[in-house]
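ARCHIVE CARD
Drawer: 12
Card no.: 0347
Subject: one protein chain, sequence and derived structure
Cross-reference: see card 0346
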Amino acid sequence: MSLDFLSPAATAGEGGDGPIARSPMERSARAAGARFELRDGWNVAIDYGAGAEPEVAAALRTAGWADSSHLAKLELQGGAEALESAAGTALPFGAGVRIDDAWWCRLTATRALVVGGGASVTRERIGPAEGLDVVDVTSNFAALTLVGPAAREVFARFCALDLRPTVTPVAAVRPGSIARQPGIVIREDADRYLFAFGWATAEYMWSVVADAGLHLGGRPIGALALAQLSEREAARA
């Protein structure tokens, strides 16, 4: 039986018609002044009223956090050989592998989580992999991206995971307790972290991150600012 109906992107008809998927943090983002745009079936916060420039500046100065719940999330279940055959490369424990704009994260010997890249793109890459089950868990997990030189300090205010570079280098994957909730952290770049957590805890998680971030001079940022920051990171690399 296909589970494609669980993927918000799969419900859109021709011309983008169909139900709009909404992040569980949309209400919090809207209260903070977010302006939204429909992207791939999702209502995405693109900025907070004054455009991307002040948000980029704030993130470069201290920290910014963006709702990333719209990113596709697929759970792969199968033997080690099937998982690595789908990825086309080795999937080490404790580290994410970047493939087609998505993070492939080995969680156990028989499970991996793919975050980003688009569910359809990932499914196309996997193809009819024998011995592998693929479940769309996009709406099971909300996500935030925390970026900026003070990002690790913001995390330290509500999370006991050791995110020091010597312990958690770039591309490291760290499952554990985030604000006393189960979650997973991916260190995407030197000052950038993507973390996923239960959908039902999203408003609480936003309030925790906002409380810590605002005290350090940070602010929420939208998809436009996050894209500009990604371009800066790519140019630096």
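Annotation on reverse: Confidence is low (pLDDT under 50) at residues 1-7, 9-16. The helical segments are 26-31, 52-61, 80-87, 119-126, 151-156, 202-215, 223-236.
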